[in-house]
Every structure is written in structure tokens, then in C-alpha cells.
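FIELD: query
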Amino acid sequence: MTIVTPSKICLGGNIFGYSCDAKHADGIIKTAFDLGIRSIDTADVYSNGKSEEIIGNSIFGNREQWFIASKIGVDSSSNGDGVLQIDNIRKKLFDSLKRLKTTYLDLYQVHRFDNQAYIPEIIDLLNSFLEENIIRSYGVSNFTGNQVGLFLTLESKLEYHQLYYNFLKPKILESTFTVGLKHILYGVLGRGVLTNKYFNFKNDGYSRANLSQNIRKDLDHAFINKLIEFDLILKKFNTNLFEYSIYRAVNACQNGIVVIAFRTKNQIHQLNHLFSKEIPINLIEEYEKEIIKSSQHLNLGEPVVS
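FIELD: result
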């Protein structure tokens, strides 16, 4: 098997099959590939497996050039407790492989801590998957620092921790960042709120915000006005809210991966010049303080981790 180094930017597959149909998703995946993105993140629960299926069909011809990450540990009727049963995990893994049209995963993640699971048994099973070459590495997602520590005190070969971060929620990264692990950051665009997408939001029934009550709760009028003001400031520094949100995450996680659920090909093209820029974070941070203060009552996709 070819070893693929994950690209810094990773395609988020959570929208595939939900608010992004197969044809649209295929265009995004192929555009990302053409522009050098080689990482893609999904889960068996995303659109009840449809996300994995869409990805499998789209990358079938060049699978060996992709770093594919998927997850287990959440289902539509559970927050994670009781899902990680030994007899169930292998079946779910092979179901994911079938949908993804591959014989192995580059990264397999426990989606959420399972309070009913016997962790040493889970670790033994994940280690056996490594030995069988069914997975190349494994990680965890949305774990607290103590939960990560439990894995690390046992005979695990844990490599990755996927966790939520955006520049308005910096303390989450500080409280769960674990030295020695590779980190995967998601939520960097706050479900699209940390772009200009909702600056002129209208309740027209068609946008993602209209599909999601949680997003609508984040579209606080005063907060959006603050974002608009902040975006104008960013433009004075030759950037914008979309770029800055991604740039901030990349700089917060130097040795990790940043997951972005791109909704258009144009968004991917915008990244072409982003990393050749020098955005003066140290000068902009002063302007962040007020907007961070105004966003404390908002969720912006932050998970409940317990």
C-alpha cells in the first residue's frame, strides 16, 4: 500500500448526502484533488453512510492518492454510549470499507467517548486492525483531556485527536490539546457563520441555515453586525473573514490537519493564494477581543463533550 501524507487542508464529508448531493460533492472532491488536497474526513453516521458512499464513488480511480479518515461511535439514536461493542465494530468497519470502495483506511477514529465500552478491549481491537493492515492509524474525536489520557495510559498506538476549534473559541483547543498527538481541527468556519455567507441572510427556505435550527440560533443580529465590521477591518489587511478563519486554524495547529466542509469549488480556489500570504495575526488579535466577547452565547457548532 502506498503511504499518503495527509494534506494540511482536509475535505469535510459531513455535508455529502445531506446539504450537498452526489453530483455537487463529486465536483468539489475532484476540484480539491486537482488543487493538491489529498485528505478527506467522513464517518459512518454522516447521512447514514451516504457520505462514505459518495466519497467512494468519487475517488475510486485514484484512491491510493488520498488520505481517507472515517469514524465509528455515534449512530442516529445514540450520543455514543453503547455503540462501541466489540462484535459491532468490525462489522461497521467493513461496512465503511465497502461504501468507500477500499480495502483499508488511512485513519480510523472513535467518534465520541463511549461510557459503556471497555476501553482496553477497544484498544486491543484497534491494534489488531493495524496488524491486519485494515487501518494505517487510529485516533479519537471530541474526547476530553482525561479521556485522551486514558487511551494514552494503556497500550494504545493513538496518533490523532480530532477536536473543535475556531478563532472565537480558542480555549477549547487549549484545554484539550495533547502534546505528542497529531491534531485535526474542525468547526473552523463555525458552520459557515465565520464567512460572509450570512451577512445578508434571508429566511428563504433554501439555505443551510433554513435547514438547521442550530445555525439560525447563531445568526444573532448584533453578532452578525460585529462580523461585518470585523470583515471590513480584515480587508484593510488584504484578507477576509473566510480566509482569516482558515489561516487562524492552520497557525493554531502547525503539525495537524484542518477540516473544511467546502460548499463550492470557488471556495477551494480561494485557498490557492491564501498560504502565500502573510496575514499579521498579532495586529488583528486586538480587534478579535470584542467579537469574541459578543459571541460567547453562541454555539457555532461546538459539541457537548462529557
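FIELD: remark
Residues 221-236 form the longest helix (16 residues).
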